[in-house]
Amino acid sequence: MPGERNWARNLEYTGRIEHPGSVEALREAVAGASRVHALGTRHAFSPCADTDGLILAQDRIDPDLVVDQDAGTATVGAGIRLGDLGRLLADEGLAIANYPSLPHVSLGGTVATATHGSGDGLGMLATLVRGMQVVGPGGELREIAGEDLAGAVMSYGALGVVTRLTLAVEPAFDVRQDPFGALRWSALEEHLDEVFASGYSVSVFTKWTGDARNALVKSRGAEPVTELFGAEPVHRTPAEIEADTKSTEVGAPGPSWDRLPHFRIAAVPSVGEELQSEYFVPRAEARAALDALRSMGADIDEALHVTELRTVAADRLWLSPASGGDVLAIGFTWRDAPELVMPLLPRIEEHLLPLGARPHWAKLFHARRDQVREGLPRFDDFAAMRDAADPDRVFGNPFLEEVLGA
Question: Where would I find the FAD-binding PCMH-type domain in this sequence (predicted)?
Answer without folding.
Answer: 9-172
